[in-house]
Design brief:
With 120 residues, the chain is mainly alpha-helical. It contains five helices and two strands, in the order H-H-H-H-E-E-H. It has two domains: 75 residues, Arc Repressor Mutant, subunit A, CATH 1.10.10; 44 residues. It is elongated.
Length: 120
Amino acid sequence: MNTAAASLDATFSALADPTRRAILARLVKGEATVTELAEPFSMSQPAISKHLKVLEKAGLISRGRDAQRRPCRLEATPLREATDWLERYRELWERRFQQLDNLLEELKAKEKEKRHARRK
């Protein structure tokens, strides 16, 4: 497996958990400590730390050093890579839906012509 594929796998695996998505949503507002990230959840700090390790391994967060604090911050690059990957499929489906819309318009026009021809 190439590096890009492994990175995408790690990103999507990390995003699969609602707690980790909530942590990322919190970090969009700015850096936070483990204690601050644990506050809204009914789980222990060690449990939150496990989630943070998954996010860190996927490259979605980084941890700094600020005296006694180790603030976590969001890292956008893996999210951008996942978005770019998804965008290719969105474009494909938009083209297919546009083709379907065109076909439906053709069918409607033909049906309208048939009705108009019957009235004459």
